[in-house]
Design a protein that fits this description.
Helix content is 50%, strand content 19%. With 179 residues, it is an alpha+beta fold. The longest helix has 19 residues. The N and C termini lie far apart (33 Å).
């Protein structure tokens, strides 16, 4: 996984819980990088799992809730750092419709070794989008958090429904509707 995911996860822990908690987790975790991440580095998914697992144990917040909250947090960080990728007149549904055809193309220019999930648009309407999320990492909860973070950014209230379609390859139907 891209280092930008790790640096933002640690930053989220520092800013929403405490610097001490972040340090404690990085010290205790059995991480491939010994807890030292750079935004352009690449690290194994298992390191995220280790960090989230420890954070869950220490805070008694379920891992899925932490991953969802991180997705919301991460959206803001990604959009702030890459506003040039998003059309100025875009709304949430435009952004979601352009994930694979525009956003991920630009991300790969910045991070050529990134392994990104795919989002295939099945149906698009003005206030609804139906997509298929596909990734061996099975992080649809993170994707849902990112979508909700995007909804807050664009000041749009939405519901996100997820339905696992297949487990090999891992595919999830995501339906996002304005409420």
């Amino acid at each position: 996984m891209l280092g930008i995911i790790f640096t933002n996860l640690v930053e989220m822990i520092e800013t929403t819980i405490s610097y001490e908690m972040a340090d404690e987790i990085l010290e205790e975790a059995n991480l491939s990088s010994d807890g030292i991440f750079t935004s352009v580095g690449h690290y194994p998914l298992e390191d995220v799992v280790e960090i989230v697992t420890l954070l869950s144990q220490k805070t008694e917040i379920p891992p899925d809730d932490l991953i969802f909250a991180f997705g919301k947090y991460l959206f803001v960080k990604l959009i702030e750092g890459h506003k040039h990728i998003v059309r100025p007149d875009a709304d949430l549904f435009d952004l979601l419709a352009e994930l694979d055809s525009n956003i991920h193309v630009e991300v790969l220019k910045l991070y050529p070794n990134a392994t990104l999930p795919t989002f295939t648009v099945v149906k698009r309407e003005k206030e609804m989008i139906d997509m298929i999320y596909q990734s061996p990492r099975q992080l649809e909860t993170l994707a849902s958090g990112l979508i909700h973070g995007g909804a807050e950014y664009f000041k749009t209230e939405v519901t996100v429904n997820m339905n696992v379609l297949e487990t090999s390859p891992y595919r999830v139907q995501l339906t996002v509707k304005k409420t």
